[in-house]
């Protein structure tokens, strides 16, 4: 079952900015682009580099290691939807901003 957590004002990056968020053993990156928040897993699926220092190009972040670009909304590599980083929904409500984390996978 997924879990929703409230983000504090200190955790939220300013418009055009980014922040690192460590939660439940994961390292997430929060981006604030054109008034909207986006959260992705920090870890390039190519060779695992951190995307935290990657150049932001509109809705894409470019991996600083080899230059692959990932869409902040879908997590997909540009033009290659099979290769992606995890994305985490963020909702802005009247009483705050919330991040939704996936639940544990159940063993089959
Ligand atoms: S590790 Fe990210 S593009 Fe190679």
UniProtKB/TrEMBL annotation:
Native species: Rugamonas brunnea
One Pfam family it belongs to: Rieske
GO MF annotation: an example: metal ion binding
Cofactor: [2Fe-2S] cluster
PROSITE patterns per UniProt: RIESKE
Entry keywords, A to Z: 2Fe-2S, Iron, Iron-sulfur, Metal-binding
Source superkingdom: Bacteria
Family label: Belongs to the bacterial ring-hydroxylating dioxygenase ferredoxin component family.
Annotated ranges, domain Rieske: 4-99
Name of the protein described by the UniProt record: Rieske 2Fe-2S domain-containing protein
């Amino acid at each position: 079952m997924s879990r929703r957590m409230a983000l504090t004002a200190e955790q939220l990056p300013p418009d055009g900015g980014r922040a690192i968020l460590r939660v439940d053993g994961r390292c997430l990156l929060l981006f604030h682009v054109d008034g909207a928040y986006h959260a992705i897993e920090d870890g390039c699926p190519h060779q695992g580099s951190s995307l935290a220092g990657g150049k932001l190009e509109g809705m894409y972040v470019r991996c600083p290691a080899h230059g692959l670009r990932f869409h902040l909304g879908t997590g997909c590599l540009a033009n290659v939807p099979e290769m992606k980083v995890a994305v985490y929904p963020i909702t802005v409500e009247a009483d705050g901003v919330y991040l939704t984390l996936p639940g544990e996978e159940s063993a089959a």
